[in-house]
């Protein structure tokens, strides 16, 4: 599985969390890492053909970003608007992303319990991230369970260091793909059933 991580933080030099994740991904063999803020420059303009080639060459696409106003920072939206074009990502012959995977890795300032019905942010992360899920569906990608680090505002240095291993394990986990996970569970059930049949005869 070839993994492409697109980091969308407006200023990694001021980041506590996403910078650590960026450094972790940079040290990992098999991950291609792009800093969208550096690539897009002050006008957030991307080389569309180059970015589309990166997408074509990878199987799992990861959007890494801090949650800003319940969405991603503008650099990721600019990248999506420019790179996910008609005829490439959608439209009658726009099937170039079909079969790939889309994974989000994000950090929030608010704590986990605020992202529930009745919490002060009211909505779950699954609900708030729906535009990304629908982008995956429209483009024929498999949307994977996101990685969310909550409570950036109060996270200790130890919490952040620990998150490096958990975000990396999540990003590299093949079983995030529901089809792969389900196939393994089905196989286990089948083997259990065979064993039970043998025992009862
Ligand atoms: C402009 C802006 C908007 C933000 N919006 C949210 C938000 O909607 N929900 C939330 O939980 N945190 C929000 N935060 C907090 C960031 O998510 C938090 O600072 C970030 O995840 C920390 O990551 P970093 O250390 O990599 O910068 C916001 C921060 C900024 C600067």
Write up what this structure looks like.
- It is a single chain.
- This protein has 201 residues and is of the alpha/beta class.
- It has a single domain, classed as Flavodoxin domain (Rossmann fold, 3-Layer(aba) Sandwich).
- Helices cover 42% and strands 14% of the residues.
- The chain is built from 8 helices and 6 strands; from the N terminus they run βαβααβαβααββαα.
- The longest helix is centred in the C-terminal third of the chain and has 23 residues.
- The site of flavin mononucleotide (FMN) has 15 residues, from loops.
Topology, pairings included?
Elements: E1 3-7, H1 18-26, E2 31-35, H2 36-40, H3 48-56, E3 60-66, H4 74-83, E4 101-107, H5 125-128, H6 130-138, E5 142-143, E6 147-149, H7 157-172, H8 178-200
Parallel strand pairs: 1-2, 1-3, 3-4, 4-5, 4-6
Helix pairs in contact: 1-7
Residues 9, 15-18, 66-70, 107-110, 152 line the site of flavin mononucleotide.
What are the key terms here?
Flavoprotein-like_sf; oxidoreductase; alpha/beta; single chain; FMN binding; 8 helices; binds flavin mononucleotide; 201 residues; 42% helix; Flavodoxin_fold
CATH homologous superfamily caption = Flavodoxin domain
Instruction: Work out the oligomeric state of the chains in this entry.
Output: single chain
Distance from first to last alpha carbon: 43 Å
CATH level 1 class label: Alpha Beta
CATH architecture title: 3-Layer(aba) Sandwich
Overall pLDDT metric:
97
Q: Could you list the spans in which at least 5 consecutive residues all have pLDDT below 50?
A: none
Give the proportion of residues in helices.
Answer: 40-55%
Q: Give a list of the ligands.
A: flavin mononucleotide
| Whole-number total of structural domains | 1
The number of strands is: 6
Number of helices: 8
The secondary-structure element order is EHEHHEHEHHEEHH
**Shape label:** globular
- Percent of residues in beta strands: 5-15%
The structure class reads alpha/beta
């Amino acid at each position: 599985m070839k993994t492409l991580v697109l980091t969308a933080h407006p200023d990694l030099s001021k980041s506590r969390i996403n910078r650590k994740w960026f450094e972790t991904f940079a040290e990992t063999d098999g991950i291609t890492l792009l800093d969208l803020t550096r690539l897009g420059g002050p006008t957030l303009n991307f080389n569309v053909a180059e970015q589309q080639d990166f997408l074509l060459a990878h199987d799992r696409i990861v959007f890494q970003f801090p949650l800003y106003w319940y969405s991603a920072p503008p650099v990721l939206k600019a990248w999506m608007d420019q790179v996910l074009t008609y005829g490439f990502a959608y439209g009658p012959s726009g099937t170039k992303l079909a079969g790939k995977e889309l994974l989000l890795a994000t950090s929030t300032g608010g704590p986990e319990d605020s992202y529930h019905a009745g919490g002060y942010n009211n909505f779950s992360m699954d609900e708030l991230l729906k535009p990304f899920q629908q982008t995956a569906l429209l483009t024929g990608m498999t949307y994977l369970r996101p990685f969310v680090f909550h409570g950036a505002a109060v996270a200790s240095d130890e919490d952040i260091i620990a998150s490096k291993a958990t975000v990396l394990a999540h990003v590299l986990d093949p079983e995030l793909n529901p089809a792969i996970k389900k196939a393994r569970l089905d196989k286990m059930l089948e083997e259990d059933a065979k064993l039970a049949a043998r025992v009862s005869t």
